[in-house]
Amino acid sequence: MAAQRAYTTHPLVLRRVTVRRVEEVTPRMRRVVLGGEDLAAFTRDGVGHPGFAAPGFDDHIKLILAADGDVRAALPAQLPHGIEWTPAEHRLTRDYTPRRVDLEAGELHLDFVVHGEGPAEAWSAAAREGDELWFVGPKSSLRLPDELDWLLLVGDETALPAIGRFLDERPLDAPAHILVTVSDDAARQELALRDGDTVTWVLAEPGDAAALEAAVRALPVPPGEGYVWAAAESRALLPVRRYLQRERKLPKDRVNITGYWHREEPAAPQTEATPDAAPAPAGIPSPLPWLVARAALQLGLVDAVADAPGLSADALASRLGVPGTGIAVLLPLLAAHDVIVGDVDGRGLRLGAAGEELLDDHEREEYTGHEAELLLALAHLAPALRDGTSPWRLASGATLHDTVAHDADRFGELVEECEQLVFLLTGLTADPLWEDVGTCLLTGPGSASVVAALDDAGRRVRLRIAEEGTPAAVLRGHVPVPDRIDWTAGPADVAVAAKALAYRTDEEAVQLLARLAEWTGTAVLVEASRPDGLSPHAAEAALHAFTATGAPLRDSAALAALAERSGWRVERTVALGWGAEATVLRRA
User: Which residues pair with 66 in a beta bridge?
Assistant: First the structure.
C-alpha cells in the first residue's frame, strides 16, 4: 500500500479583494484584513469559479504586485480551470500564509513581518481601507498523518502566521512543541497553547542558521510517533533538515521543511588590498565552476565537510579516499565560488553559503540528477543538429526513452518532476469527456498525478497502467492505492498519456500513439507546449526538450502532426495553465 498522499489540491483562481482594516499585532507584525465578493463563488467573463478555500494551516496564496504600480498589467490570465502566467515585465509575486479565514464574514487575514524592505511589506505599510489586492491560490493543502503522538513546529517570525493558525484551529489533537526564533522580544505573540504544549522563544538574527540548528538540537525528543514542520530562511533550514533526517532519522513523510524566504548575501566590501577590483568580465560564463561543484558532490566532498567541519585538505582527501593532489585541484575553485571557505592549504575547511545550498536535495539535483545529465549531453549539440538526432542519443548511445525504461532512478526522477502536474489537472478532470468513461488507461511518468487528480475530482473510474517492467515498479511506489489499479494494459474508454511524449523522439511518440489506438478510440496527451511563464529558465525550455528528444517543445501543431501520423485526429485542446495543455484525440 502506498503512503498517504501529502497534499490535497485546490482549483487555481485569480481573486480580487480590498482592504477592510489594518491592525498592529506586535511592533514586528502587521495584519491586513481583506474582504470581497471574490472570496465566495463568483462568475467572471461568463465562467463560474468556486469560493475561496484554504483549509490548511500552512496554505500559501500568491500575491500579485507590480514594480511600476500597474497591477492590472501584471495579472495572469484566468482559464476556466487554472491560471496562465502570461509574460509581464514588471510583475512581482510573493507567497503568504493566510493567518485566518472567516468565510462567514467574507474576510481573509494576512500577517506581514515589519522589516522595512520588500514589495509585499511596502504594500502592507501603505495599505488603506479600500485598496485592492489580487492573488491566486492556494494550490494545495498539507495533509498531516492521521495518528501522531506529537508535533514540532519550528520557524522564524515569518512562520508565526502558520504556527498561530495551527494552534487556533488544531487540525490534529496532539501536543504541539513550538520553537520560534525572533530578532527582538517585541516579536513574541500570545499563542493558543493547551496542556501538554510547549513554546521556546530564541533571540537570533533573521537567517541565523547556527542559532536555529542549536535550538532544534537542544529540544528534548518526545516519545512516540512525531512530525516536524519547519519554515524559515531557506539556507538556515539546511542544517536542521540534515539533523532531523540523518541524526534523528525521521522518515521523509514525517518532515515538512519549507524555505519561506531567501537572504541575499551582501556584496563583499572593498579593502585596501583590492581597491580597484575589476568587475566580472562580460560574455559567456565558464562551465568550470559547475563541473567542479558536480565533482565535489559526486565525490562526497560537500557532505564530508558538512559532517566534519575543520578538516584539513589532507584529512579531507583521506576521508574521501582520493589522492591529495586531486583534492588540491578542486579546492581553489570551490573556495572562489564560496562552496568551501577556510585555508584550502591548511586546516579549518567548512562550507560557504553556496556549499550550504548544495546540501538541499533540490539544489543537488541540478548538478547530479537528470537535469545535470541533460546539460552534459549538450556537449553534443552541434553534431546532433547536423545529424537530426538528439544530443542525449549521441551522448549515451540510446534514446532517453530506452534509457529510462531500464533505469529506476532516472524514471523515478521523471515521476517526481511530474508531481507538480496534479495542481494543473482540474481542467482535464472537469472536462465532459469523463461523463461516459468507465475505464481509463494511463501511461507516462505523470500517471501518478493523474490518479491523484481523478481522486480529488471524485472521478471513480477503473484505472489501468500501460507501463511494464522498471517504469511500472517505480510508478507503483508513487500511485495512491495501487491495489485498486489493474497493472496490465488493455482496452479502455480513454487513454491519458501524461508527459509520456516529453522523453520520446518523434518516432517513439508515433509508436506509442499507434499502440494506444489498439486499446481505445479516445486519447488525451498532457504535455507542456510552451515554457512556464514564471520560470527564470523559460528561454532554456526548448533546448532542454531538444536535448532529450531531438525536437523542441511540441506545440499544438507539432502534436497534431504526430497524431495524424499514428491514425488520430485532434478534437480539441484544453489549456491547463503554466504552459501545459491537454490535447484530446479521436481515432481517425
Answer: 91
User: pTM for the whole thing?
Assistant: 0.82
Q: Estimate the crossing angle of helix 469-476 against helix 408-417, to 10 degrees.
A: 50
Task: Tell me how long the chain is.
Answer: 588
Question: How far, in whole angstroms, is CA 458 from its chain's centroid?
Answer: 25
Cis? peptide before 138, omega within 30° of 0: yes
Lowest mean pLDDT among 193-202, 312-321, 496-505: 312-321
Query: Which secondary-structure segment (H or E) carries 47?
Result: strand 47-49
Instruction: Annotate 521-531 with b (16+ C-beta within 10 A) or e (fewer).
Output: bbbbbbbbbbb
CA–CA gap between residue 543 and residue 374 (Å, rounded): 10
Question: For residue range 175-186, what is the model confidence (pLDDT) as tens digits?
Answer: 999 999 999 999
**How far is residue 279's CA from residue 276's CA, in Å, rounded to a whole number?**
9
How are beta strands 14-26 and 29-35 bridged, if at all? antiparallel
Q: At what angle are helices 324-336 and 313-320 packed, to 10 degrees?
A: 120
First to last CA, the chain: 39
Condensed to tens digits (0 to 9), the pLDDT of residues 97-146 reads 999 999 999 999 999 999 777 899 999 999 999 999 999 999 989 889 88
Outline where DSSP puts E strands in 267-382.
Answer: 340-341, 350-351
pLDDT at 434 over 50: yes
Residue 329 has pLDDT above 60, yes or no: yes
- 201 and 176 Cβ atoms separated by less than 8 Å: no
Of 282, 275, 232, give the one whose Cα is nearest residue 257.
232
| Kind of pairing between the strands at 77-79 and 82-84 | antiparallel
CA proximity to 499, closest of 447, 574, 544: 447
